[in-house]
Amino acid sequence: MKNQLVTALLLTGTQLLAGYVNEELVFKESFDTPAALAKWQGGADAVFLEKGGPAGANAVKFTADGGDCLMIIPLDPAKLRGLIQLEAWIKGDGLKIAEKPYWGSKMMISYTDGRGAHYPEPSARTFGSYDWKKVSMVLLLPPDIQSASLTIGIQHGVGTYEVANLSIHRCVEKDQPAMAAPVNREAQAIPRGSGQGAKYRGVMSGNDLSPEAFQQLARWQVNLIRYQMNPDKRDVSSPEKYLAWIDDEIVRMDRVLELCNQHHIKMVIDLHRGPGNSVSKVASNLIEEGLDVATLETAWRRLATHYKNHPGIYGYDLLNEPVNNQSTDQSLWQSTAERLVKAVRACDPDTPIIIESGFSISDFGGLKPIPAKNIIYSPHFYEPFAYTHQGVHNAGLKWSYPGMIDGTYWDKEQLRVSMKSAIEFQRAHHVPIFVGEFSVINWAKGGDQYLADTIALMEEYGWDWTYHAFREWAGWSLEHDGVGVQQCVPSTGNARQRVVLEAFGKNRP
Asked: Which of 431, 305, 454 is CA-nearest to residue 384?
C-alpha cells in the first residue's frame, strides 16, 4: 500500500518533502592512489583497495579486533560554517555491537567552537555485515567554529569497515518531490507478524487527570493509560523523601483509578523517576549514576502490596527508560530488574510486571528473559530520532516521512528494520510486548503517515501500546497542530489525531 501511495504521489507531483540539496564541494577524497592515505593521520593502519569500492571506485579498508583502526584529517573550519552534508559509500563485515554507544564503525566530523569540543555521532550505526551502500549526515555547524577534523574507521570495535567516495558539500534545505522507495532487503528477511492486533491501546498521562480529561479519553475509546509517576520539582533527594513521595502518589493514584474504573480504562503504573540517580535530557534514568536499588525495591514492595490483584492495573512498569549512559551493556539493568521482580512477586504473585529495554527499541539486543510469570517486555519507539524529535534536541534540521532522513531512506519497512531486535526477542521467547511510548513531534512533515505505519506494525505483531502523550506538552499533543518548529496551536481535529483515533476505535472496554 505504501509503495502504491508513493508512486501515486510521484505521478501527481503534489507531495514535496523536506530535504537537503548539495551545493559547493568543500572536501573530496576518492583514494586515487595508495599515496592518498599518507595525507591522513593513521593512514598506515588502513588498507588501500584499488577498484575495490562500488562501481569500481577505489576504497580504504579498516580491520579491528577490539582496538582502534582510524584515519583523521584536518578540515578548513572556514568552509564548514552553516549547513553541510557528509556523504560516503560504506561496507561492513562482521561489525560487532561495541561496549559503548559511540564505539564501532566511525565517520564523524568533530569540531571546536567557543563552547568547547563537539563530537556529533550519526543517529544510527549499522552493525553486522552489509554490502556497499551510500550514507549521509547533515550538520548545522556554528559560525564561530575554530577547528575541525574528519575521522573514519573503527574505534574500539571488531570487524571490517570499508569506505569510498568521501565528500563534504555545503547544502541548503529544499523541498523536493517524493522519491520511490528503494528495495529493503533487510526488511524482507524479517518474519511478518500474525496480524492479531493489539488488545490495549491508549495514552501516556500528562498534566491533566481531571474528570473532563477522562471523559475525553472515553470518547476516544481509550482503554489503557500509562500513569506517569513523576516527582517533577518535589524534593526526593533522600530515601525518606523518596518513599514519602511514593506514599503520596499511592493516594493520588487511588483517585485516578476511580476515574479509570468509571470509563473502563486500565492503568500502567509507570515509575518514571528512580531514587538517587540522575536523568538524561530525554528523562531516561541513568542507572549507573547512583541508582539506589534498595530504596527502589522498598518502593515497589509498597506499591505491589497496596495494588495486589487490583483488577484495574495492567502492569507494574518498574523503571522508565533504564539507561547505562556509558555502555550498551545491559547486565546492570538485568540484575536490577531481576531483584525488583523478586521483591514484587513476594508481595503480589500475579499482577504483570513490565520490564523496559532502555531508551531505544534496539536495546533489546542485550536483554535476557526473566524467569518469572506474567512478565511483559516494553520498548519505547521514537526511531528515527532525528525525525521524531526534530526541532527539540537537534539544531533546527528538518526531515519528512517517508524519505531520506539522516542518510537512510525511512518508510514502513525501515521502521520494521528498527524493530528487528524486539521482533526477534518476542519470537524467541514467546513473550508479550507493550510499547509504552511512541510519538512524533507535531510539526514534522508526514507525521500522520509515520504514526499510521508505526501503529500498523505494532498491530501486526500484536503489541499493546500507549501514545506519548495526553495533555503533557503541546509538541506531542493530538489536540494541537504544529504550524512551525516549536509553534503549536490548539486543534479540534488534525491528520495525526485522526490516525490515532481510528486505531482507538478498535478497542473494546
From this structure: 454
**Cα separation of 47 and 53, whole Å?**
12
Cell 482503554 belongs to which residue? 223
Which cell numbers in the block locate residue 313? 492495573
| SS3 assignment, position 236 | coil
To 5 degrees, how large is the angle CA 219–CA 250–CA 433? 60
Residue 70 and residue 89: Cα distance in Å, rounded? 17
Return d(Cα 272, Cα 319) in angstroms, integer.
6
Q: Among 420, 328, 397, 286, which Cα is nearest to 102's?
A: 328
Cα–Cα dist 312/341, whole Å:
20
For 421-473, what is each residue's pLDDT tens digit?
999 999 999 999 999 999 999 999 999 999 999 999 999 999 999 999 999 99
Q: Extract the C-alpha cell encoding 496.
A: 495525526
Are 156 and 68 within 8 A, CB to CB? yes
Relative to beta strand 285-286, strand 278-279 is: antiparallel
DSSP class of 98 = P
Residues belonging to the chain: 509
54: amino acid identity, one letter: P
pLDDT digits (tens, 9 = 90+) for 65-74: 999 999 999 9
- Quickly count: other Cβ atoms within 10 Å of residue 451's Cβ: 23
As a whole number of angstroms, the distance between CA 444 and CA 450 comes to: 10
In angstroms, the CA 280 to CA 206 distance is 19
Among candidates 198, 157, 203, 97, which has minimal Cα distance to 420? Answer: 97
**Residue position matching grid coordinates 555545503:** 170
| Domains of the chain listed by start with CATH number | 2-180 (2.60.120.260), 193-504 (3.20.20.80)
The band of 394, judged by pLDDT with boundaries at 50, 70 and 90, is: low
Residue 234 scores a pLDDT above 70: yes
